[in-house]
Amino acid sequence: MASNVKVGLDLILDSLSVPLSGQRIGLIVNPASVNSNLEHAADLFRNHPGINLRALFGPQHGIRGETQDNMIEWLSFEDRGGCPAYSLYGETRKPTPEMLADVDTLVFDIQDVGARVYTFISTMSLAMQAARECGKRFVVLDRPNPISGARTEGGVLDPAFASFVGMHPIPMRHGMTVGELALMFNREFGVGCDLEVVPMEGWRRSMWYDHTALPWVMPSPNMPTIETAAVYPGTVLIEGTNISEGRGSTRPFEIAGAPFIEPGALLEELQSYDLPGVRYRAVHFQPMFQKYSGELCGGVQIHVMDRFLFKPVITGVALIAAIRRLYPNRFAWKQPPYEYVYDKLPFDVIAGTSRLRERIEAGASLSQIEEDWEGALISFEERRSPYLLYD
Questions:
Q1: What CATH code would you report for 8-215+383-387?
Q2: Which CATH class is domain 226-353?
Q3: Average model confidence (pLDDT) for the chain?
Q4: HSE, side-chain direction, 13 A CA sphere, residue 45
Q5: Which pLDDT score, from 0 to 100, does residue 50 have?
């Protein structure tokens, strides 16, 4: 049964529980920055008599969500309300002092999807750093982790592999909300800004997004559904290979394949791994853009049958390992650069370590790979505990 969850945006405008009146506000938003009535934060702030909105900032994919991955966006433009709007996914990824000159408080209201590599949390961290350096206040309006906050999975980032797709030592599936992450970044990882978090009402760690009664708005062009978010912490790893992760299809990250893959053989291999909570279906698809655009690809679609048993990260690893085993002469790791990293393989940048790739290349079993993660995950869960806001 769905529960009526109120996000931070609902609560701050209901009560101004974090005082914003008398402050010049900068707002970090994208299309998913809506309240429970689908009213956008920028409009709500602009029309609120107690709020002085002075600037808008957009993460990757833009304030309006119009750009695909890795597309450099405009530095600035005027929004329809007349205030400046800046991209934080161009040559500038951290708000500059000039951008913040007319701002007293920077408000972050962005929907995350629960994976370390989803760049919105890196934008948040950099904006928090800018707020500290410029003497500005930083407020996070909290939102649900759409794949629940009950589980963590995957390797914890090695700081030597820090990048815009992973700035802090957290696992691939971190099991935290953006508000909880902000608290952890601020104290545990030393950002040190003047931070306040407006928590949600009614959200519990076991909840998936469709338990909240909140409308789902795509936070990015290739995150159309909650089902996409469910598989993303694992299948995002495919970006670091020559396999299509389904971009350019109607089921990105749920579908994967390549022209050289025979779907039946891949299906049989994956079924032999007997992973929990998941089934696969042999498919053919033709991406409309990106890898293998216009070419017929064979592959599989991942179907999550039991989301509480499903382990997205090891499932993504299994898919890559299976394709590599079946097609050793056709499979390849993508070559640099990736997100301005020129000296490391893109797969390693996404994974946050070279260890995972090396284990796949060595033929390690899936259980051995999971054992590699276990100690660091236990330590991470202990470190994150003081910053959890919800039961």
A1: 3.40.50.12170
A2: alpha beta
A3: 94
A4: 30
A5: 85
